[in-house]
Write a structure and sequence with these properties.
This protein has 147 residues and is α+β, with helices and mostly antiparallel strands. It has one domain. Helix content is 27%, strand content 23%. The chain has four helices and seven strands; from the N terminus they run αββαααβββββ. The protein has helices at 11-18, 32-37, 48-56, 74-89; strands at residues 20-21, 24-25, 97-100, 106-111, 117-124, 127-133, 140-144. The protein has a five-stranded antiparallel beta sheet with strand order 3-4-5-6-7. Strands 1-2 form a two-stranded antiparallel ribbon. A hairpin with a 2-residue loop joins strand 1 (20-21) and strand 2. It is globular, with a radius of gyration of 15 Å.
Length: 147
């Protein structure tokens, strides 16, 4: 499997996975059935649990945590699912967990045995902030898509 550090995500690749109609982001056609049935995620391979978790977030409402958290919008979820498929194509290991953020974002998190922590937070459609913290090294930050 590839490391997230070695994984450029061009905007066009992300757009291809997300899909767009009339300027609005849509869930890729291959996920329409998954959204309806919530059982099968076509071609998600090792990323299937992460994608299914994202599909489940569709049912979150605002204040999902009882403390005023905003639910991720459909556009955010479509963007997160598209990014998951981009990572799958790049052979990146699936995250250890997928969580909704308090302001409507979506986060992928990896916790490596050596203590490395990696987080990708999709903060708006087609835009994510990446942070990698390795023991004994300064944190690294960059954004996706890469150009």
């Amino acid at each position: 499997m590839s490391s997230l550090l070695d994984c450029p995500i061009p905007e066009q690749a992300w757009l291809r996975e997300v899909g767009q109609r009339n300027g609005a982001f849509t869930v890729p056609a291959r996920l329409d059935a998954a959204l309806e049935s919530q059982r099968d995620v076509p071609d998600a391979g090792p990323w299937e649990p992460a994608v299914m978790k994202l599909v489940e977030f569709e049912h979150l409402g605002d204040n999902w945590d009882g403390l005023g958290a905003r639910a991720p919008s459909s556009e955010m979820l479509a963007s997160a699912i598209g990014l998951a498929y981009c990572f799958l194509e790049q052979a990146v290991d699936p995250p250890d967990c997928v969580v909704p953020g308090l302001e409507g974002s979506v986060m992928f998190e990896w916790h490596d045995p050596d203590g490395t922590y990696t987080e990708v937070e999709i903060v708006r459609p087609l835009y994510a902030e990446v942070m990698v913290i390795e023991p004994g090294k300064p944190a690294r930050h960059w954004t996706l898509p890469t150009r």
